[in-house]
Amino acid sequence: MKYRIGIVAGVVLSLCILSTGCGNSTNPNTSLTTIDFNGVNSVSSKSANGLSLSLSLDSTTYQPGQQVTIVIDEINTLSKTNNVSASNKWPSNNLALGIPNESTMFPFGVAFFRGDYTLLNYSTGTPLVIFNPSELYIGTPVVGPTSYSFHPSSDIVNVEGPQYSANIARQISSTITLRGYWPNHNYGAQIIQFDPGVYTVVGGDEWGSLVVIHFTFSQ
């Protein structure tokens, strides 16, 4: 069982990994419902194992104080069941979907950067701290999945592993909502709203796929 201690003093929770709305917890035994942005700002990348990793944002330009919502998704491009073994071959150590010491069943993660980066030079940038450093995970480490059985032409998956039931289908997709970032990883740090300028989001999965997308905060 997981136990989380989150201490936020006088600050409204400003980031959620969610399925249907901010404040909803992600239940690993339930298929998630994600937001469809209809290609407003999206990018995808196909890999040799028949999967496609995609990032979608709800806009290309945001106003000061506006929240940014992004969906990251892994889809089977094959019209048949696709059994893929976990590889743990991450293209970057900066990719995450939550606080650094919390395990996740998802085979992908994201990193945010201030500035206009590409897949050729994003590693030279310093990732923004987008997950609350005041949240701590304590408890027994969770062993990650050993394999993913993707349904035909779908992001619905039967995850297999010592701590997962292979009989339960899950949606390998996650929605992240951001209202800012933290200046550092210090416990008790206060959130900062996005400044005007260009930002870069990098998404990657454990099979080595990478995608990059950009958005702007106006003056």
What does this 3D model show about the protein?
- By secondary structure, the protein is an all-beta fold.
- It has a single domain, classed as Macroglobulin (MG2) domain (Immunoglobulin-like, Sandwich).
- The chain has no helices and 15 strands.
- The protein has a 5-stranded antiparallel beta sheet, with no helix packed on it.
- A hairpin with an 8-residue loop joins strand 11 (156-160) and strand 12 (169-171).
- The termini are far apart.
- Mean pLDDT is 81; it is low at 1-39.
Count the DSSP helices.
0
Euclidean distance between termini CA atoms: 45 Å
CATH domain topology? Immunoglobulin-like
Low-pLDDT stretches? 1-39
Net shape = globular
Which percent range describes the beta-strand content? 35-45%
Secondary structure layout plus pairing:
Elements: E1 2-6, E2 15-18, E3 41-46, E4 51-57, E5 61-62, E6 68-76, E7 82-85, E8 108-114, E9 135-139, E10 147-150, E11 156-160, E12 169-171, E13 173-178, E14 197-205, E15 210-217
Parallel strand pairs: 5-15
Antiparallel strand pairs: 1-9, 2-13, 3-4, 4-6, 6-13, 7-10, 8-14, 10-11, 11-12, 14-15
